[in-house]
Amino acid sequence: MSTGSDHEAASPTGARPVARPTVVLGVTGGIAAYKACELLRRLTESGHDVTVVPTESALQFVGAPTWAALSGKPVATDVWTDVHEVPHVRLGQSADLVVVAPATADTLARAAHGLADDLLTNTLLTARCPVVLAPAMHTEMWEHPATQANVATLRERGVLVIEPAEGRLTGKDTGKGRLPEPGEIFELCTHVLARAAAGGATRDLAGRSVVVSAGGTREYLDPVRFLGNRSSGLQGFALARAAAARGAEVTLVAANSTLPDPAGVKVVRVETIAELREVVVPAAASADAVVMAAAPADFRPASYSEAKMKKAADGSAPAIELVQNPDVLHELSTSRGRADTVVVGFAAETGDATGTVLELGRAKLARKGCDLLVVNDVSGGAVFGSPENEAVILGADGTATEVPRGSKAALAHAIWDQVARRLQD
Ligand code: CTP
């Protein structure tokens, strides 16, 4: 095992990188098998030691030479190759992560029932590490009660079965059942690996439903002009990814973000604060936790012009009257659908004559009525669009948790740690 930096895998949670984590990539017989080539590339290029275990039917879609060339290792589907190395137990026992992408309905069924008729199912039975299954199939197969029962069984046993994405399927049909983008499955895997390496619980949000808002709203003046803000959505997307990696059912309400849908996350794209509120408020009513990482505009134009506003002939500029927007976080905190929902807000502060960043944060926590407030010092605008962040997480119970500068993923996990603690209480 090498410990050289070129052999260390990137750690999204900010934890010490793991020296060359060992990953088994299972590939099963669905058309999305070709997307697993990209996942394999991402894993190997970021320093993971990957063994690909395809099923016989996966090889109908992508041949063994492709897997062998991309992983730099021999590829077998059965337990009779290199028997002296006892591969049917060795692979599972020595893995830091097993990820199966795509996982067909048949594979889910075989895994749920503990069958062991090929190398992949043997590996799933012997793995003691986190196991991630990324199903991909037609909507009818995914929704079939047999498949749903198998998914429920696997989840109960501690497997992270991620929800398929919605969109175009193999034929002309569209619906739920697409394999999430390989880059996003990769991100989820690195979260799981880093959490496990740091000794953190990998599925402590399993069975929980959470809502996260992200990005900045746009308040339109006319069909082409709007008032907006600098929020990139990076922190909210990191929160959604981190929660999905910890087993939560996640709804991400994304305002004007161009970031791709995180794997296993239900993404609702919105533009204005009115649209954001319309989705967040009902979704939060039954959720275990809601995190308002979005930057909704505080004001919107008092009127909207259906036609594009034209310049005046006399050169005068129009006056824009603004009205205040509803405060969604305050509404979520004060009229909760469930008394035990953990409500989390963000506060981007610069400090002013009335108080320091933290003093203003404490006052905002009380004013908003939420359970946790993540306070960012945004003096100089350093946080917008940056992959890094630092914050203090203030609790309504008087706690203050400092999160040092690190990745937005690391801050996301620190926030979920606080939420998970409150959900257990
Ligand atoms: N927020 C909200 N609805 C709004 C404005 C903000 O839900 N109309 C939420 C944000 O998502 C964030 C928190 O409130 O979680 C704090 O946002 P911030 O803009 O710092 O608070 P404001 O209430 O606008 O306070 P300030 O007067 O300091 O701008």
Automatic annotation (TrEMBL):
One annotated GO molecular function: phosphopantothenate--cysteine ligase activity
Annotated EC: 4.1.1.36, 6.3.2.5
Cofactor(s) listed: FMN; Mg(2+)
Cofactor binding remark: Binds 1 FMN per subunit.
Organism encoding this protein: Nocardioides marmotae
Top-level taxon of origin: Bacteria
GO BP terms: coenzyme A biosynthetic process; pantothenate catabolic process
Name this polypeptide is given: Coenzyme A biosynthesis bifunctional protein CoaBC
